[in-house]
Amino acid sequence: MTASPDRTDMAPPSRQGQGGVPRHVALIMDGNGRWAKERGLPRSEGHRQGLDTLRRIIRHGVRIGLDYITIYSFSSENWSRPAGEVSFLMSLLRRFVQRDLSEIHQANVRIRVIGDRQGLEGGIRALLDEAEGLTRDNTGMTLVVAFNYGSRDEVARAVRTLAQDVAEGRLKVEEITPEAIGARLDTSGIPDPDLIIRTSGEQRLSNFLMWQAAYSEFYFCDTYWPDFDEAAFDRAIADFSGRERRFGGVSAKVF
User: Fold this and answer.
1) Burial class of residue 167 (count of CB atoms within 10 Å of its CB; 0-12, 13-18, 19+)
2) CA torsion angle for 149, 155, 160, 165 (degrees, to 10)?
3) Which residues lie closer than 8 Å to 34 by C-beta, 6 or more apart?
4) How far apart are CA 92 and CA 81, in angstroms?
5) Global confidence as pTM
6) Are 229 and 208 spatial neighbours (Cβ–Cβ below 8 Å)?
7) CB atoms within 10 A of CB 254
8) Cβ(67)–Cβ(24) under 8 Å?
9) How many other β-carbons are positioned within 10 Å of the β-carbon of residue 103?
10) Which among 30, 186, 192, 194 is annotated as catalytic?
11) In the chain, N or C: fewer CB atoms in 10 Å?
């Protein structure tokens, strides 16, 4: 897969393209550290600027009528980062909930958290629960926050619950279907992402939504996440809108 160029001649996103405006966009927000390094700044400043970018993209997603945005906010592998950086990222999570949750709620956005919450520090779990609880009945765009999330871990947890049901006689082996597995995933009830965007030039999933990405379109750009603005987001969506999606068939499906 090759990186999609940052084109400036694309029209704003429209539902007239073959793919239409995606219903669900997933974001791998990469490049905060490199953005900071190139400017002689600490990595923490890159993460701070990245949070500002996230705020703008969420607002823009609401404006253009997306149904879902999923963000890879903190992976299960990120705990291996230096303790000081992890601590700062946790402080950004607290700041995001304390500063932005009210605005998100007023915008009728619903928050859904995916990932393994077992073993998380109590204060962090309380923040995640607060965000979900306050916005549970909202009917606008859903912001899916992947926190302490790893796709392999998600699938393994789902399969363990199925195996337990088989062992206890509640499920037959032949009833373990892709649909049964999908229903046990953290994303149960959430449509698979139509478009997955990764910034900073990297071209891999990094253990993100691997099951759900079976028929997703991918868009890679060299822009670091702190510089990924609304215009860059619109270019990604316009690129998606011009693609033909066959889902393994011959003719494209139009949304």
Assistant:
1) exposed
2) 120
3) 46, 200, 224
4) 15
5) 0.87
6) no
7) 12
8) yes
9) 12
10) 30
11) N
**pLDDT for the residue numbered 248:** 66
| Strand 110-114 versus strand 24-28 pairing type | unpaired
Which H/E stretch holds residue 165? helix 151-167
Q: Which of 67, 78, 116, 227 is catalytic?
A: 78
Q: Which two tokens stand for residue 17?
A: 């393209």
Known catalytic residue at 100: no
Distances (CA, A) of 98 to 53, 104, 127, 153: 17, 11, 9, 29
- The CA distance from 112 to 73, in Å, is 12
Radius of gyration of the chain (CA): 19
Q: For residue 193, give every residue at least 6 positions away whose Cβ sits within 8 Å of its Cβ, in sequence order, or none.
A: 22, 24, 25, 26, 68, 70, 209, 212, 213, 216
Question: What is the structure's pLDDT at 80?
Answer: 86
Contact of 79 with 34, CB cutoff 8 Å: no
Please give the average per-residue pLDDT across 205-225, as a whole number. Answer: 98
216 DSSP 8-state letter: -
Q: Which residues of 4-13 are buried (b: 16+ CB within 10 A; e: fewer)?
A: beeeeebeeb
Q: Would you say residue 92 has pLDDT above 90?
A: no
**Distance between CA atoms of 139 and 192, rounded to whole angstroms?**
19
Element holding 126 (H helix, E strand): helix 122-135
User: For residue 11, which of 239, 215, 245, 190 has the smallest C-alpha distance?
Assistant: 239
Given this model, what pLDDT does residue 249 score? 63
Interatomic CA distance for residues 230 and 211, integer angstroms: 28
* Strand ranges, E, within the chain: 24-28, 68-75, 110-114, 142-149, 195-198, 217-220
Cβ atoms of 79 and 86 closer than 8 Å: yes
Determine the Cα–Cα distance for residues 249 and 38; give it in Å rounded to an integer.
45
